[in-house]
Amino acid sequence: MPAPHNPFKAAIKRGELQLGCWLGLAEPYVAEISASAGFDWLLIDAEHAPNDLRSIIAQMQVIAASTSHSVVRPPIGETWIIKRLLDAGAQTILVPMVESAEQAQALVDAITYPPHGVRGVGSALVRASGFAAIPDYLQTARDEICLLVQVENRKGLEALDDILKVDGIDGVFIGPSDLAADLGFIGKAGAPEVRQAVLDAMGKIVAAGKAAGILTLDQKLQSDSLEAGATFIATNIDVTLFARSIREAAISAREHLKK
User: Crossing angle of helices 238-257/28-35, nearest 10°?
Assistant: First the structure.
C-alpha cells in the first residue's frame, strides 16, 4: 500500500486552480470550521502564527476529515523542522524566504529519503506512515510530497531563474508583503512597482513549468495573478476575517443599542 494520494499536488500539476485560506489563529476548532467552508487548501502557518508541532497536528487531523487539503508553513526552511512536519503527516510544505538555488536544492534534499536526500528514516514511529500501517511508505512518500517555495525579496527575485531550474520543486509562491518591504514600499503591497514585480515573477514561474501561487486579499491582484497563470491562490486569512467581523459586530451593537 503506497503513501496517501496528495490531491493538491496532482491538481496544480494539471494546472487546476486551487483556492485557499490562511489559518493563523492556531486553533483546531477554527480549522475545523474553516475546513467546512469549501476551500481547496488551508495553510497552517507556523512562521507568523503561534503554532507548534502539536497544534499543527491537531489542525491537520480535523482538516483531514474534509475535502480541504492541509498546507503547512514552517517558520524557516531548516531540515530538522521539515523532517518533523513530514513525519507528523504534512504532505505539502510551503517554505518562506527562499533566496537561492542552493537553498532550494537543500529543501528538495530535506523532503527526500536517502540515498537521494537526507530525510531521516523513522517511519515506524510516525503519523505519516499510519504508524507503520502503510508498508510501502518509505518507497512512495516522496511521490506525494509537494514542495512549494516562497520568493519574497529582491535576492529571491534575482535568483528566481536559477531556483526554477531545481528539479523537485512543485511550485513557487510570491509573497507580496515581504517583497513590498524589501522594494521600499513597506505596508504598501498594492504599489504599482510591487504588483508589476509580482506579475513578472508569475510569468517566469509559469513559463518554467512550475505552479505559481500567492496570498492576497486584493481582488484585482487575485484576478491579475490568475490571468498570469497562478494555480494556487489564497484569498483570505482567518485572523483578518475574525478581527473585521468582531469589530463590525461591536460597532453595530453600539449603533443599535447606545442611542
Answer: 90
The 10s digit of each residue's pLDDT in 36-72 is 999 999 999 999 999 999 999 999 999 999 999 999 9
Marked catalytic residue, from 48, 69, 116, 256? 48
Residue 48 a catalytic site member: yes
Question: What's the distance, Cα to Cα, between the start and end of the chain in Å?
Answer: 66
Interatomic CA distance for residues 215 and 21, integer angstroms: 8
Average pLDDT over residues 140-169: 97
Which residues does 55 contact at the CB level (< 8 Å), separation at least 6?
Answer: 26, 27, 28
pTM > 0.85? yes
For 249, what's the count of Cα atoms within 13 Å in the CB-facing half-sphere? Answer: 6
**Which structural domains are found in the chain, ordered by start?**
7-257 (3.20.20.60)
Q: What Rg do the C-alpha atoms of the chain give, in angstroms?
A: 19
- The answer to whether 108 touches 166, Cβ cutoff 8 Å, is yes
